[in-house]
Amino acid sequence: MIQQNYKKTGYIVIFALVALLISFFTIPVGATTAKDVAKLKSDLFTITQSSNMAVTIYYDTEEPTVYFQSPDGKDVFIENLTVQRDEKVVAYFIPNAMAGKWVMYYDKGTNSELDVNWAPYANPITIKSFVASAPDSSDKSNVSFEVSSSVAGAYNYKVYAAILDGQSNVTGKTELTSSTGEVNTLVELSLDVSKLQTYDKYYFYLDVWREEDGIESNDTAVTAEPFSVANLNSPKAIENAKIQVDLTGGILDVNWTEYKKNCDEYILAVYDTADNLNPIFSSSYKSDVTETSLNFGDDVKELRLELSYFQSGNTSKMLKKTIPIEPAAGIFTTPETELVSSKQVSIPYSTYIDFLLDVTVNDVVQQITISGNGSFAIELDDFDNFIRFSYSLEDDHIAYVLEKTISVDAIAPMLLLPENDKILYVKEKTFDLVGSTETDCTLTINGETVRLNKDGTFLKTLKLSDGANEFTINATDMAGNVSTQIVVITKVKSDAAIGSAGTPFNRKYFPMICGFGGSVFLVICIFILSKLFDKDKKVSTKFALASFIRNVFAVLLVLSVGFMGISIWKYFSLKSVVKSEKLFDETMKSVSSTYNKLKQFELMGKLIKVSIIIFVIILALFVLTMFLARKIKRNKQGLNKNKEKKDKSKADVKAVMPNVQTDEAGVIGETTTDVVKQVQNVKEPITKLTEETLMGNKEEYKCLNCGAKYDKQVKFCKACGNKM
Q1: pTM greater than the 0.70 cutoff
Q2: Is the pLDDT score of 625 beyond 60?
């Protein structure tokens, strides 16, 4: 029974805990306040006296959640503040912020960082309404306006008569009245405009402002409709002005220096007659400024100029001039060309009216009468020429100007054909012609345009027919200068036919002649140097072969030295031209020849390196074969001396043998026993001599070749290298 009560009590506790958790997680999300969300704290600002404060926060993804805490510890939430929002920026306005330290609590959310700025502000004032009536017969105009603000107080105002440009910017204004007013209160005025200068597009302009704690707030407004003033007391208008219309750059120059007035200021306005309400230019100038310039668009067909001045409180009557743009621009046009090859250029024209044209070329002026259709010529200098065309139509005070720069280039372009030998002979049906010219040129071969590479080089496969084929290559630059080369390519049927086609004998057979002459020279040198044909000396086959090879390398060594010397001489001869100012003179004489010299200079540099390598190799082989031949010769000399000594011993034996004579009857003279003894006596010294000569005795050994002595027997003589 007790256990059951415990179980019931446990169930009740568990049920209560579950209910508590459910109630906690079911709290509405909307009940979360800014204070609940903001987690981070930051000191914001400290002020010494109460002031209106504006806090501006810049963010990168989303508006952060913030609230502020005043110096007395009270929380200030944004729901109670004026807030202004813009793209990725929000501003909070804290009115009458308490003096002391202010703190901001915030949660930056997904923003990587926040940029917080603060500054005092004044309560803004705004022009709520601004209307004005047109001046009546007594030059009076009724003006009313109202200025609003969240904080009561006075403000200052001024009312002007203003002139606006085409973008509604104020370019000139005259003050009509000024005073103070109370915010949120309508102000009504009657303004006198009789002292304004005569003008048909004035606007009323209102400027209001007030200052709080050293901070100023202001606002401005302009009436929607303009008004005009015709002042009967206005001074006379400016007599005239000189106007120059630069049709090339779209510039209007206005100069009234010749007609200037003793005044306070000048007022100038320029309109596109397609829009008479809004000037494209409007400005006022001090009395010492009597000229100005302005730009107009390409689509302007006609301009209207209005010029007046302000004197002793009155505005003068207006000088008005109409300036046609489109018709005048079509009467005369500059030549399209900017680059010519001649110092004289012809300018064509076609016009429906007669006028005088002033042509200025590099400060030299000439006047030409233009009438109907025709052309005139002008003289140019080398390189750039600045040309100015100027003319007037019905109004002599309006001059139209066209400017042009024409360059003179009378130098023909470079055209290089490295393979152009005037006459070429080939067996193939096609020939690949390569060359180069300047990159801005147009290249043609027999009238057909050939595409150039970016560096000006080209390759064209030419089709050939039997016999002579003539090709004319023209390179034309932008100025019209032409470089021409003619290439004649003769297609022949065989190599033998090349000689009969007109090639000079010496050029046709030059390689063969050089090869034959070199071979003969080589054989003669070998014949002279070798001693194979010397009958007084007998040499072995090995020595003859080694001597022959040595002599060949000796001849090649001489030829390599000559080849290297010629290469070095040719290299430095070409260097004296290529690496000096002579190259320019050579280029002016013949571009192809200069190109070939450059290629030869490069080739000679490579040949010098090759010739040095060949010389070193041949020299090494020559030295090697020379030592080999000498060694073979010494070995052969040693063997010959040994053979001579053996032959001498045999001769001694033969000298003794004739003393023994026999005949058919028997032994005549000495007996057999005596002969045997005599032979034995002769044999003993021969044997002794041979042993002493060839083998030496027990105490001394000699070299049979050079006679060097040794105390013991050796295999080779150290003195001469002979084999013992």
Answers
A1: no
A2: yes
